[in-house]
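Quarterly update from the structural biology core.
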Amino acid sequence: MKLVGTFYDRLLRKPWLVVVAVIAVLGSAVVSLPNLRLEASSDSLLLQGDPDLAYFRESSAKYAGSEFLILTWEPDAPLLSPDSLEPLTAMVDELRRLRGVSGVTTLLDVPLLESPPLSLTDLARADSMPTLRDPEVDRRLALTELTTSSLYRNLLVSEEGDLTGILVSLAT
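Predicted structure, tokenized:
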């Protein structure tokens, strides 16, 4: 402890020496700054030999690429009203016709599991899952499901139910 006290006393007696030392350290840092290179590629940020990375790369190679765009869409009318679903359907059809687009997924295409609620037996017997494209689907129940379900809330539809996402898969 006495050694630290002695060192501190010497620093207080010669503060100009401390200032010169700090300036020298900062000066050498500034001089070597142009030689500083930061590697911020995705490969450098991932741990090589990471089993999750290996699994991701294996899955990507097996099941096609993962290039996609996510569009957000906020209609002027309530989200599941005919006045908002008709323009959404038209936009989806137009997106699907674009060269380079392999698929488009919207709230019109996702399966509705709680509108009405389905049991596992119902799911096993069903030829197809109900979606918003089915005219007999109760839109109020569907909106409740889309805004409260952990599958869709804040991923496909905002909690308020006024904004939705559109997944545009790009051809590779």
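The longest helix spans residues 15-32.
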